[in-house]
Design a protein that fits this description.
Layout: H1 2-13, H2 29-42, E1 45-48, H3 55-70, E2 76-83, H4 87-94, H5 101-108, H6 115-127, E3 132-136, H7 139-148, H8 161-174, H9 181-204, E4 210-213, H10 216-219, H11 231-236, E5 237-244, E6 256-260, H12 268-275
Parallel strand pairs: 1-4, 1-5, 2-3, 2-4, 5-6
Helix pairs in contact: 1-8, 1-12, 2-3, 3-6, 5-6, 7-9, 8-9
């Protein structure tokens, strides 16, 4: 649960940009729905962000995706919520005519997500026979990457300086300022591995279009998945952040941002503050 809180904070910090003015406190779901629908119809590779626990954002995205699929689109649906080692089980389940969303959810149950928020996407994938692609690297793999580096796990080992610097800052912020810079920098390769793998999956499944569902931090165009795409796919990628009220200043990190109210949640920093000492820098 603590890990999920941290992810929520990171998703909130790393929010979005917009092609239309944002008015703090004003939330226009109809306009957001229209913009989402237009984006899905006009871009081949969609990186669709979220704050993981924001129910209103999930409702907007699921409705836009349902409308898009009803018009005949059949993109691959890439989901951060499934670790890549679950892909064989997902493929086997999706091949069955009687597969249910509960059966697919059971495959990823151990990863700790709030699966009721992701059920609508899985139901759509089943109904429209979409390729459902696991787009995450497991916690066990990321622990290995933190200790051994990216190269031994098959990822590109060199991290550009701007990505390293900004990702380090994001990790410190996501841990409520309770990590030192050196400790946060050691954690950056885990985030990079996830971004690189998501980029690999986009490139592998681009033929009929791709929709990646992932946290806002992953879909940032400046330091996220787009930075790890090849030139052609990078040019086609369209990043959409769903931005909670209060984080509008981060809007320039995305091609498009949509504003929603912040989800009510316990303070994710409270438990961390109790458990972790202040860092010595």
């Amino acid at each position: 649960m603590l890990r999920r809180f941290i992810c929520m904070v990171l998703g909130s910090i790393a929010c979005a940009c917009s092609t239309f003015p944002m008015t703090p406190g004003h939330f226009d779901d109809a306009a957001s729905q229209a913009q989402l629908g237009a984006s899905l119809r006009t871009h081949h590779l969609i990186l669709l962000g979220e704050v993981h626990d924001n129910a209103r954002q999930h409702a907007l995205r699921a409705k836009a995706l349902a409308d898009y699929l009803q018009e005949g689109a059949r993109p691959a649906l890439l989901m951060e919520q499934f670790d890549r080692d679950t892909q064989p089980a997902i493929d086997s389940a999706m091949a069955r005519a009687d597969v249910t969303a509960d059966q697919i959810i059971a495959i990823g149950q151990s990863t700790g997500w709030d699966w009721q928020l992701y059920r609508p996407y899985i139901e759509l994938a089943i109904r429209y026979h979409l390729p459902l692609i696991a787009a995450n690297v497991s916690r066990a793999e990321t622990r290995t990457i933190i200790s051994q580096g990216l190269g031994p796990s098959g990822f590109a080992a060199e991290i550009p300086d701007d990505i390293l610097r900004q990702q380090t800052d994001e990790i410190i912020a996501a841990h409520c300022g309770l990590l030192g810079t050196a400790q946060a920098a050691r954690m950056v390769p885990a985030q990079i591995a996830r971004d690189q793998f998501m980029a690999q999956m986009i490139q592998a499944h681009r033929e009929h279009g791709v929709i990646l569902l992932a946290g806002n931090g992953h879909v940032r165009k400046d330091i996220g998945v787009p930075r790890w795409l090849d030139t052609t796919n990078q040019a086609e990628a369209y990043s959409i952040g769903l931005l909670e009220s209060g984080t509008e200043s981060m809007r320039n990190h995305f091609n498009l941002a949509l504003l929603t109210p912040a989800q009510e949640r316990p303070d994710p920093c409270a438990e961390l503050t109790e458990r972790m000492p202040r860092p010595s820098r």
